[in-house]
Design a protein that fits this description.
The chain is mainly beta. The chain is 6% helix and 54% strand. The radius of gyration is 29 Å and the shape is globular. A hairpin with a 2-residue loop joins strand 33 and strand 34.
Length: 744
């Protein structure tokens, strides 16, 4: 039997067809490219989310990370694969692989996570940095009915707040034992501190803010001078893409002649977005000449100019006036002294994506403050006394009228380069370069003496930072070179690392180890550098104050992200602290020098608990062991070596429980400030040098009575706790307010 012969051409065609079929199958099975974008419930992009493709047999190819705009690209395991996206603090999400870009929305986990900018100058999930960060979002602020920023910060571990009496008094924030001027305060990246770091939180409200971030530890490597103990960033509210015009109005009133009125709106128009908010707060407080009036106006607007370029502007002004009755716990009030303050800040930012691997932005901002402290009428003399403590002599009033006009011009250029993105083997690599200029201008005027001091200082800083991200490890390191007209040159490094020691496995969630270390610098104030007053002469040769901070901790998630517990140890060292040294007694002359040194160490314990969608609880406790290690006040019972740092409590903490459903919102917040070193500053005998501390509880409530119409209620100091903050300044007793809020 003869078998037909196949021609060589036919055999070649059959082999080629078989090869192409096999190759096509391989390509369809393993070579499909899948791309998309990861967003949160509000539509904002989520960077550094882990994305992988899962085949029907549950095998998976190498995953990838989303970039800073939430975008991802990867090779799928099969044509009919499933995309899985995970990010700590968000619910896992899946989506089918398609030939079109996929948009994956991650729902918030019961204990949510936030994307922050204050830790690295770019958007990073808080779970992927080694620094200690606390975030208060719009929901937190709304439940607490937009309180003063200082009251919000009490809900962060490591933070202590001191307000001289009632609302409107000088308000200081201390972080991990640092001085009150060791916190860099920013509004959308624009510095708000006075030259030298001073910042008074007295009339700073949370109106029209969508987020408040605080990064604890020295951050001068990223933000330059003043970031000795922390960075506090206020983020202005903005409308998200597709938001229709919407707004709200509210009014409330209650105890101590208190009234609060707010209004605002936000929306989008094409590629532009806008928001505007205004608020006025007024109260008489509880003692004569202690009234407080403050007004806030805040605005933000932006536009997508092209597919790769955008422009955004921000504006905020807060102006208030408060009476200054003095230490009324020890004697009569001063009946005419007052403090008037007007702050204005504005800025514009241009952002440009040159390529998917390179982007740049430039910002110009101007922060201006005008302050007046005046007491022209002389009140009658009095002898301070308090519960058996009596001064041996009378105190006499004295007249003063001082004015400060301070301006800070700020310009910055920042470039972010991503040489490797999304590769989980090589890691996502992110390099940042930033150049900052601060032009500080100031005028200090003594109206009664007819004396005026003018000051000008220009500072330039260059930041270099690199971040690396793998599946289990994220790390960053950076250094800043600073040139300051007052102290010359300084270099400050910083590094941090976070390691996932255990990935989430049901009830026992993710275990994350973290650590960071950095150095800080703070320039002298204008008074310290330029004052011509013999009682406190300026010193042009002052060095910067310096800090070294270290922290390490562990974060544990449990019960399918319904519980999170965080334990952090910290150790801080502050040196070259600026203080006065007496030069002569007759005539009296003193001058500023770098003569102080201190240290603090301790632990922060905090946790969150969300057993149901409606119920959420938070707590925090901080132990701060502080000590004066070098001081000119050798014989002083308050400031001598070995004492605790002034007005820094050894024990502090907070607790918060909130309940929210379709109609009712309840929030209970308590703060605890323990015993601390203080001074009566009134020559009392025996002297009072310890403030025993206090615990205070506040309640907020709202109830929807109709569509976009709600009744609101608030009660401060529920237990009517009687305490002084600080010594001599009585805190307000129980106060009740009721109001109404309408939306449109």
């Amino acid at each position: 039997m003869n078998t037909p012969r196949r021609s060589p051409v036919r055999i070649h065609l059959l082999v080629s067809f078989a090869f192409l079929s096999t190759f096509a199958t391989a390509v369809s099975g393993f070579g499909q490219t899948v791309s998309g974008r990861v967003i949160d419930p509000s539509g904002q992009p989520l960077p550094r989310a882990y994305v992988r493709a899962i085949a029907p047999d549950h095998s998976s190819a190498n995953g990838s990370f989303s970039d800073i705009d939430g975008r991802f690209t990867l090779q799928a395991a099969a044509a009919n694969c499933t995309i899985e996206v995970t990010l700590t603090g968000f619910e896992n999400a899946t989506a089918p692989c398609t030939g079109r870009p996929i948009e994956v929305k991650l729902s918030l986990a019961p204990v949510r996570e936030h994307v922050v900018v204050s830790a690295t100058r770019s958007e990073v999930p808080a779970s992927e940095i080694g620094n200690s960060v606390s975030v208060f979002d719009g929901d937190d602020l709304n439940r607490r009915q937009f309180p003063p920023v200082a009251d919000v910060l009490l809900g962060s571990p490591g933070v202590a707040v001191e307000r001289t009496g009632a609302y409107g008094g000088v308000t200081s924030v201390y972080v991990r034992g640092g001085e009150s001027n060791y916190n860099k305060v920013l509004l959308d990246g624009i510095p708000l501190n006075e030259p030298g770091g001073t910042f008074n939180f007295s009339n700073v409200t949370s109106e029209n803010l969508e987020r408040i971030e605080i990064v604890r530890g020295a951050q001068s490597a990223v933000f330059g001078s003043d970031a000795m103990s922390s960075v506090i960033q206020l983020v202005t509210a903005r409308a998200r893409p597709g938001t229709p015009l919407q707004g709200s109005l509210s009014a409330e009133g209650g105890s101590f002649g208190t009234g609060r009125f707010t209004g605002g709106f936000r929306g989008t128009a094409g590629k532009a977005d806008y928001s505007l908010g205004a608020a006025h707060y007024t109260t008489d407080n509880d003692v004569p000449n202690n009234e407080f009036r403050t007004t806030t106006i805040s605005a933000s607007g932006g536009s997508q100019l092209t597919g790769s370029a955008s422009l955004r502007a921000v504006f905020r002004t807060e102006f208030g006036k408060s009476g200054a009755p003095g230490q009324t716990s020890f004697g009569r009030p001063d009946m005419d002294a007052f403090f008037d303050r007007r702050d204005v800040v504005g800025g514009v930012t241009f952002s440009h994506e040159i390529s998917p691997n390179l982007r740049q932005q430039a910002t110009y901002g101007l922060a201006s403050t005008r302050q007046q402290s005046t007491n022209l009428l002389l009140d009658a003399p009095y002898t301070p006394e308090f519960e058996g403590h009596v001064s041996p002599f009378e105190f006499f009033d004295f007249a003063y009228d001082s004015r400060s006009y301070l301006h800070r011009h700020y310009a910055t250029y920042q470039a972010d380069w991503f040489p490797i993105q999304g590769d989980t083997a090589a890691g996502t690599q992110h390099t940042t370069f930033a150049a900052d200029w601060d032009g500080e201008r100031g005028t200090l005027r003594d109206e009664l003496a007819g004396d005026e001091t003018h000051a000008s200082r220009n500072n330039v800083g260059f930041t270099f930072q690199h971040q690396a991200l793998w599946r289990r490890v994220s790390a960053s390191a950076g250094v800043r070179f600073e040139h300051n007209d007052s102290f010359g040159n300084a270099a400050v490094p910083r590094a941090s690392v976070a390691v996932v020691a255990h990935r989430s496995s049901g009830t026992f969630g993710e275990t994350r180890l973290k650590a960071s270390a950095g150095t800080g610098i703070k320039e002298p104030t204008i008074l310290q550098s330029f004052s011509r007053n013999d009682f406190f002469l300026g010193n042009p040769d002052l060095e910067p104050e310096r800090s070294r901070t270290i922290d390490a901790g562990i974060e544990q998630r449990l019960a399918r992200d319904r519980i999170k517990v965080d334990l952090t140890w910290f150790d801080n060292h502050y040196r070259d602290i600026i203080s006065t040294r007496t030069l002569s007694f007759n005539p009296f002359r003193s001058q500023y020098f770098n003569i102080g040194e201190s240290k603090s160490h301790g632990v922060e314990l905090s946790g969150e608990f969300a057993p149901t969608v409606r119920l959420h609880a938070r707590f925090g406790y901080t132990l701060t062991a502080s000590e004066v290690t070098d001081s000119e006040a050798a014989g002083d019972t308050v400031f001598a070596v070995g004492n605790w740092l002034f007005r820094r409590p050894r024990h502090s903490g907070f607790a918060q429980v909130s309940w929210t459903d379709n109609r009712l919102s309840l929030d209970l917040f308590g703060s605890m400030i323990g015993k601390r070193v203080d001074s009566d500053f009134s020559a009392l005998i025996p002297p009072i040098t310890v403030n025993e501390g206090h615990t205070r509880w506040d309640v907020r409530a709202s109830y929807a009575i109709g569509h976009r119409l709600a009744l609101t209620g608030a009660m401060d100091n529920v237990t009517d706790a009687d305490y002084m903050e600080p010594l001599g300044y009585p805190a307000l007793g129980r106060a009740v307010r009721v109001g109404i809020r309408a939306g449109f």
